[in-house]
Specification:
By secondary structure, the protein is mainly α. Helices cover 57% and strands 9% of the residues. Helix 2 packs across helix 6.
Length: 166
């Protein structure tokens, strides 16, 4: 594969390796996100909606006993934060994938729970999503994948969280 400066038709290499690395991350993320969007589109699901469903399923150690989450928990666990989680949950609820539950201890608090339809949709997407990730990254060794993960975690540790709160 060609270096990023060739891929984007930049006339000369980058002067700053940090800029090149950041743009490589953004370019790769955009490509991967577009591929996931194409996979999810026939199910009327966005990557953010898929992420919410996965979060709800992941918070339950027992698949038969799915635990609801608060919107605050969901927002904290999202891979890519969304500006309006309420609207996203509204769409998922309208599609019958999640439901809102009133907290028994506080009638003002709302919890979000995965429905049976949401569980079925996730189960039907598990293998195709795993296959997509294998297609995207299968040419890398486990050692290389672990190295990428370590380096990206290290890169994130240097970033401020202010941008994620917007």
């Amino acid at each position: 594969m060609a270096p990023l400066h060739d891929e984007i038709n930049k006339q000369r290499p980058f002067d700053d390796p940090a800029v090149e690395a950041a743009l490589n991350i953004e370019r790769t993320a955009a490509l991967f996100r577009a591929q996931l969007q194409r996979l999810l589109r026939p199910h009327s699901l966005s990557p953010a909606g898929y992420n919410v469903l996965r979060i709800l399923r992941g918070h339950s150690p027992n698949p038969r006993d799915l635990r609801p989450c608060t919107p605050t928990q969901i927002k904290a666990d999202m891979i890519t934060p969304v500006p309006d989680l309420t609207r996203l949950v509204d769409r998922l609820a309208a599609d019958g994938l999640v439901e809102r539950l009133t907290c028994p201890n506080d009638a003002r608090a709302v919890h979000i729970a995965l429905t049976a339809a949401g569980r079925r949709l996730l189960a039907s997407l598990d293998n195709p999503v795993q296959a997509l990730h294998a297609e995207q990254l299968g040419h890398l060794s486990n050692r290389e994948l672990a190295q990428i993960s370590r380096l990206l975690c290290k890169a994130r540790s240097g970033a401020t969280t202010d941008a994620a709160d917007d």
